[in-house]
Amino acid sequence: MKERLLFLNRQIMPDESNEITLVGDLAAMDFTARQAIPLLLPYCAKDIACLYRYQEGCSRCGQCDINSAYAIAARYGLQPVTIQNYEMLEETLEKLKQQGCKGFIGTCCRRFWLKHDADFARLGVPGILINVENCTCYDLGKEQAAYQGSFSKQTRLKTRLLELVIDTILNSNRRFICEI
Ligand code: SF4
Questions:
Q1: Interacting residues of 87 by C-beta distance below 8 A, sequence separation 6+
Q2: Is 56 in the pocket of ligand 1 (CB under 6 A)?
């Protein structure tokens, strides 16, 4: 059975814990390293008219949830990276592995993490993923366009839950447990 996260942060509701998953080797996960924890964000949450829609980054204009995610990253000292396509996800995780990274936090849709569970394990950096509000590329049959970075609809992030998860991990000395 897939590991299930049990968060002891009382602000995270039981049904919300189902919106969170682990990927990769749980035994190797470690968020205590001195390097900044990567926060991987999906490009599909960017405003569709944004200049950064099809390139990495965000100028923090405030027009979409990526701005909120960057603000959370700044508050907690995380390093945000917008993942622009599937190839970039693999490259980013490969690079993080080479740098000795032992844990990332990210947000993507449940269908993506279910489909790529084996890929996350193969890429070798364990992570915690938080679901998004809507799952439009799969719902609309645009999965291939999304993988290539050309999906044209906008996804919303669960920014409240994202911050609670980050706060729990960083401020509670691993006050979360996992069960098999
Ligand atoms: S907040 Fe960032 S990603 Fe969103 S529209 Fe503005 S510049 Fe683009």
A1: none
A2: no
For ligand 1, is residue 61 a contact (CB within 6 Å)? yes
Domain ranges of the chain: 19-91+105-174
pLDDT at residue number 173? 52
Give residue 123's pLDDT: 95
Q: Are 128 and 22 in contact (CB under 8 A)?
A: yes
Q: Give the confidence band of 171 by pLDDT, cuts at 50, 70, 90.
A: confident
- CA-CA distance, 27 to 17, in Å (whole number)? 20
Q: Are 52 and 94 in contact (CB under 8 A)?
A: no
User: Phi first, then psi: what are they for 134, rounded to 5°?
Assistant: -140, 160
Burial of 98 (0-12, 13-18, 19+ CB in 10 A): exposed
* CA of residue 148 to ligand 1 center, whole Å: 20
